[in-house]
TrEMBL record:
Protein name in the entry: Uncharacterized protein
Domain of life: Bacteria
Amino acid sequence: MTRYVPLVLLFVCLVASPDSPSMPDAVLEVCLTVDQADHLDRLPVSIDPVAGRVQVMERGPLSPYDLFLPDGDNRVLRIGFASGNPAGGDYLFVNSHRGYLDHAILLSPEATPRLQRPRQAAFAMLGYHGQRYLCLMETHGPRQRSVFVARIPARMGAELRLFYKQMMLP
């Protein structure tokens, strides 16, 4: 019996940990429909859309990544998407935080986490219960969309834990 106690305690610590892998449903719902703000006022999630279209900022043989940044006011929170060679790994970033797409937690079991058209993606910052979240939404035709969502850690340099979900709109 006593040899099971450490395992039980470890399990309880993992479940109770504030960094346990979960994403509030309200945050996911808002991110999936961030471009349809008419019905979002009923949810307790604040939305700060990042204005401007996404543009390529760096590219070439000297840079291992193509950087895609919204062209709006990006001084307070430096956000964007970096696409590199396959060995480098694509990632989203907020200031010094990175979240690698290939490490995203899949919330749609049939999905493969990738960003197909970075220039057409929509960025937004979301707020929920005192936490801030990065939202990147991409549409795939008139009814299908996918999102990457991450809670922005308070600790500088901590990795973003990305969640990926696909959805068909009604």
